[in-house]
Amino acid sequence: MLNLQLAHKYSRAIFELAQEEGKLAQYGKELLQVKKDLEAVPAAVSFFANPQVERKAKKELVKKMYEGELSQSIYHFLLLLVDKRRFALLSVIAEQFREMANAAQGIVIADVTTAQPATEAQQKKIAAKLEAVTGKKVELRLHENKALLGGVVVKIGDRRIDGSVAGRLQALQKELLTSK
Q1: Which domains can be identified in the chain, with CATH numbers?
Q2: DSSP alpha helices (H): ranges in the chain?
Q3: pLDDT digit string (tens) for 25-47?
């Protein structure tokens, strides 16, 4: 719980800086890239989380990986996280930043699950339809689940739209069982 509160303070701080500088999208992309980089190398996550590793060594690694690759604000933010021994919270900070930035820009995340990979054209159709329904810009997060058989299941926040074949079959089965 304490870690979530700390992560929120840091994500709020970098969010406010990004908003002030008009760089919400850029900072969001950079934080997401750093998060993905770290998650791709589990040893790096362990390295930054290890309290026995000196801050100087951690800062050197950040410098080698990101100096000149990121904006100055994000680069210095990473160094600040190392100094304050909060680098392990980066993943949570990046996610919270993304949520705040999306809310500020009127963007909603839609988790879209299909039986087979959705084509580019299908993704555009789904996004356009969801934008018309929600009145907001929609960013798709794609998932696959072969058990759906066909169709699509969309989840936006706590709202779920089931347009899958499996969902329709379940509804039909429920209807048939209750009508006996």
Answers
A1: 2-103 (1.10.520.20), 107-178 (3.40.30)
A2: 2-21, 24-40, 42-49, 55-66, 72-83, 90-105, 120-134, 165-178
A3: 999 999 999 999 988 988 888 89
